[in-house]
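Input chain follows. Return structure tokens only.
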Amino acid sequence: MTSAATLVEVDPVDAAVWDRLVAAHPLATVFHSAGWMRALRDTYGFGFRATIGLDAHGLPTAGVAYSHIEDPLGSRILSLPFSDFCDPLVDDLPTWQAVTAGLVAAGDRVQLRCLHNEVPLADTRFALVDRAMWHRTDLDATDEQAWARLDGAARQAVRRAGKAGVSVVAATDEHDVRRFYDLHLRVRKHKYRLLAQPFGLFLALWREFVARDLGTLLLAHHRGEVVGGVFFLGWGDTLYYKFNASDPAHLAARPNDLVVWEAMRWARDHGYRFLDFGLSAWEQEGLQRFKRKYATEERPISLLRHTNAPPAASQPQVQRLLADVTALAVDDATPDHVTEAAGDALYRYFA
């Protein structure tokens, strides 16, 4: 695309031109898909826009999707909220600058996470403000080959789970989604002292992806209980590891390791070429070690930000209020249903 190409603005959730770009561009991922954005829209009320570059024949060649959020924390443009990464679908710096000229001119904070595309890192309008880590497994291997290249600790953990009687089965309905969510809520609350995402998000992702045979929810069973699981989204040639939950009382049986091993086998049997383990915070060394046992690739995710506007005057007070309410909601004495309701009401403000 050149600077003379046509730029159009669309709603990527419903625009066929965005779907065509995403289907054709090699950097597109599940986080560019209309299904992912629809789940975020339906859960949090976010609206989405995309700036798309068209060639002389009217075909899409480049684009960036974003959400413009205005709330008590200020006005900001995110590409995209709550997404592990969402690389701009551009091939060179002039194209990137063209499709973001309007966003930067608006004067709001503009923020994005890049993994596969290094073009924005060369843009002096944006600063690198944080990093995270990403892992992926190449599934082009037989069971025997995949097993042999696992880290020794991973093989030991999978064997241990099998000896302990852990089994892994795919969820079949929304009742199973609720069982997984209850585990997720308790881990977020009691281990991390954080609010959980709304249950509605999990239902939306189930309906947009798993119910359409795009991914799976694998649940680990031990001694008659659901003790762990991972929610996977399928898109293109990749199965995405999106949410994990487990019961601390059963961790010695290594259910998480068995779920990952079975997910690798499930993904390959269903035609996926890669298992994407997603984002791990830079300081989450334990989580990174867990994923590294299975990964064949590791790379940093770059958080880039452009800003001219000062933060909203109310931002410090709102952040303190969110922290105080979160502390109350995740206190051990607070009933889980109250913790869940707090997440339903407040989680969108963490975008």
